[in-house]
């Protein structure tokens, strides 16, 4: 085994090692999920050297520099103050979902006007209009980290794959018998997963444009789907109150997570795929062991339906959004409530962490998006200006740009 | 409301949860009627850029009413909302004589939509109290040629017999009655087209003081 190259991963913090083994190039990552700006670097280095044979004493100085760089990165942009950068009169009907590419240089918006648009973040210019769907474009995604393709899922029952550069449609995936409402690329960008109101999920080949498998088993609409970090497992959340874990190579169901007493609103893996968090209309979130499929904890406290739930990038914290107008942050290990995000004057439909994990972003029917300190629960900023409720919000990978998509037909850029 | 609740409204869960679609030209008064049904303030209503959805409950029925903007640019998108519609409510501004032909043409197109085949249609002839409003019978005559409908005769016309049976006119109903009428239309297999004449006062009587009423009368 010969170490060839180091790659740095900022969020979640980690060092990727590219090495040669019997003639072929391989890579593995050293995940530094607990790294803080205050972490003792020497102790951490000793720890890494003890565990990782590729890191020989001669490489230690290089690794030290990388860790210091990661710590520098963590310390910056904590006090970033956002201002309204652009109002994009994006569509003639309400927006649905929005998504950034990894670098944040462009983003996509879906709309009730049946189109999807690609935007240049820096100038606010419209780069492409992705036309062809015959009904609402509901779900949109970039194939991050590559960012050269876009997938769109529509109420017209089809999913389309587009070139992000030219706006050309590569494939139209047909087969669902009802609205497509969620989709995701696997991290390798070889497979697109779609979830539909027809109660099935489907896996599609990005290259060939053909169906790989149909994941059937749910007895009601599927409204969320997400891959784990390695792409071998897929989660589907359903209105049938359950979440399924699927093996994406065989198309078989590995686990059914049963326990919620209401429709599922979202389900996610943590970074190392050890845990799954689920949010439900039954006002609770649940934590599950992804290996056994057993429920290991229930996060209570909300007075109304949980409409969204999200892990931070490292998987150490969970943020929830509820129809009761509040958000909550929980410790993923202890399941204790760390803070309450109170201040919105309407239900919160989306919540997400900044990639650094130092901020929570919420979108609400009170026409505002808000930034919070997840640890104190203090509201840091209110992003005001939309004239109707906000349906979607997202951070770019650097955590210094926010997009919000609203029922008022506009999209706003904050930086 | 959020996107998730949009999805929940999209699916038809139980038979007592009924989807009603409000269509009509811009400024017909769709949002005002919707808000009145939901007992909400109707004093500050602006043109609907997209849609409004409200769930109204009464007598064990849950009506999910979708009010879609009527401006010309967004009319082509009306067909996005045709799935699983239990009743179409078409709202006409009776005082807008210049556009009675336009509203008739739009209604005709709707009646020929395949997805709306067999869906009961309720026409709300709104703003009956305004100066220059068409009389009930004129409304029918006004939009009749475009919908191939004319009073009782229409009941037997080819378009009508294919998927719509029956006709009924009614005057001066309040929002309570509108609601009941929608239920009646939904429950009655025989009555499939109904016209109701509304006045602004029907919506506003319970909400406005006298000064505002006179302001309404002037416009």
From TrEMBL, chain A:
Q: Name one Pfam family in it.
A: Beta-prop_IFT122_1st
Origin: domain of life: Eukaryota
Matching CDD domains, A to Z? WD40 (cd00200)
Q: Name one GO biological process term.
A: axonemal dynein complex assembly
Describe where the WD repeats fall, as residue ranges on this chain. 88-129, 130-172, 173-214, 215-256, 257-298, 299-340, 341-382, 383-415
Keywords of this protein's UniProt record, alphabetized?
Answer: Cell projection, Cilium, Cytoplasm, Cytoskeleton, Flagellum, Repeat, WD repeat
Coiled coil ranges: none
Q: Does the keyword Cell membrane apply?
A: no
Segment forming the signal sequence: none
Q: Where is the IFT122 first beta-propeller domain?
A: 96-250
Keyword check for Coiled coil: no
Q: Where in the cell is it found?
A: Cytoplasm, Cytoskeleton, Flagellum axoneme; Cytoplasm, Cytoskeleton, Flagellum basal body
Per its record, how is this protein called by name?
Dynein assembly factor with WD repeat domains 1
Automatic annotation (TrEMBL), chain B:
InterPro entries linked: ARL2/3, P-loop_NTPase, Small_GTP-bd, Small_GTPase_ARF/SAR
Q: Which residues hold GTP?
A: 24-31, 70, 126-129
Keyword Lipoprotein: yes or no? yes
Give any Pfam family that matches.
Arf
The GO molecular function terms of this record are: GTP binding; GTPase activity; metal ion binding
Q: Tell me the superkingdom of the source.
A: Eukaryota
What are the binding positions for Mg(2+) in this chain? 31, 48
Keywords per UniProt: GTP-binding, Lipoprotein, Magnesium, Metal-binding, Myristate, Nucleotide-binding
What's this protein's family per the entry? Belongs to the small GTPase superfamily. Arf family.
Q: What is this protein called?
A: ADP-ribosylation factor-like protein 6
- Per the UniProt entry, what species is this protein from, by scientific name? Desmophyllum pertusum
Gene name tied to this protein = ARL3
């Amino acid at each position: 085994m010969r170490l060839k190259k180091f790659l740095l991963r900022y969020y979640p913090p980690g060092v990727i090692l590219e090495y040669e083994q019997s003639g072929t190039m391989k890579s593995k990552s050293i995940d530094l999920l607990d790294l803080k700006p205050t972490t003792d670097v020497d102790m951490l280095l000793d720890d890494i050297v003890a565990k990782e044979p590729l890191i020989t004493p001669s490489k230690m100085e290089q690794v030290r520099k990388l860790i210091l760089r990661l710590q520098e990165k963590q310390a910056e942009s904590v006090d970033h103050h956002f201002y309204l950068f652009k109002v994009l009169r994006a569509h003639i009907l309400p927006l649905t979902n929005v998504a950034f590419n990894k670098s944040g240089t462009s983003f996509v918006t879906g709309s009730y006007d049946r189109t999807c648009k690609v935007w240049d973040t820096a100038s606010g210019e419209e780069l492409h209009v992705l036309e062809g769907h015959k009904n609402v474009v509901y779900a949109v995604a970039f194939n991050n980290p590559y960012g050269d393709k876009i997938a769109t899922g529509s109420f017209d029952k089809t999913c389309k794959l587009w070139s992000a550069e030219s706006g050309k449609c590569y494939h139209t995936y047909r087969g669902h018998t009802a609205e497509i409402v969620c989709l995701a690329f696997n991290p390798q960008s070889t497979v697109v997963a779609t979830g539909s109101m027809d109660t099935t999920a489907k896996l599609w080949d990005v290259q060939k444009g053909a169906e790989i498998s149909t994941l059937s088993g749910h007895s009601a609409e599927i409204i969320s789907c997400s891959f784990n970090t390695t792409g071998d497992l897929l989660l589907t959340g359903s209105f049938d109150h359950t979440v399924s874990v699927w093996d994406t190579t065989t198309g078989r169901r590995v686990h059914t997570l049963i326990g919620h007493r209401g429709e599922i609103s979202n389900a996610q893996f943590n970074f190392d795929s050890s845990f799954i968090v689920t949010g439900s209309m039954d006002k609770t979130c649940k934590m599950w062991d992804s290996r056994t499929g057993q429920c290991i904890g229930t996060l209570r406290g909300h007075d109304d339906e949980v409409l969204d739930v999200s892990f931070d990038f490292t998987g150490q914290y969970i943020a929830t959004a509820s129809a009761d107008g509040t958000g909550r942050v929980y410790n993923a290990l202890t399941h204790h409530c760390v803070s309450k995000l109170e201040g919105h004057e309407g239900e919160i439909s989306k919540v997400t962490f900044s990639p650094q994990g130092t901020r929570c972003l919420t979108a609400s029917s009170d026409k505002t998006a808000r930034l919070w300190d997840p640890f104190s629960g203090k509201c840091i900023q209110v992003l005001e200006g939309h004239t109707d409720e906000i349906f979607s919000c997202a951070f770019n990978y650097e955590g210094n740009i926010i997009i919000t998509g609203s029922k008022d037909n506009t999209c706003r850029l904050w930086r | 409301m959020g996107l998730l609740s949009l999805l929940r409204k999209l699916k038809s869960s139980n038979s007592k949860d009924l989807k009603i679609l409000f269509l009509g030209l811009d400024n017909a008064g769709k949002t005002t009627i919707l808000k009145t049904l939901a007992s909400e303030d109707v004093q500050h209503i602006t043109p609907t850029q997209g849609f409004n959805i409200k769930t109204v409950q009464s007598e064990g029925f849950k009506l999910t009413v979708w009010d879609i903007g009527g401006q010309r640019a967004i009319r082509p998108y009306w067909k996005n909302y045709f799935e699983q519609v239990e009743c179409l409510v078409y709202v006409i501004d009776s005082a807008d004589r210049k556009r009675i032909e336009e509203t008739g043409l739009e209604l005709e197109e709707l009646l020929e939509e395949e997805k709306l085949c067999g869906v009961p249609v309720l026409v709300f002839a709104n703003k009956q109290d305004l100066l220059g409003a068409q009389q009930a019978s004129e409304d029918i005559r006004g939009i009749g040629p475009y919908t191939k409908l004319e009073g009782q005769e229409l009941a037997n016309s080819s378009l009508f017999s294919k998927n719509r049976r029956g006709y009924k006119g009614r005057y001066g109903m309040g929002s309570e009655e509108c609601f009941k009428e929608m239920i009646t239309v939904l429950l009655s297999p025989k009555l499939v087209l109904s016209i109701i004449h509304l006045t602004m006062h029907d919506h506003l009587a319970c909400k406005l003081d006298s000064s505002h009423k006179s302001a309404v009368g002037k416009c």
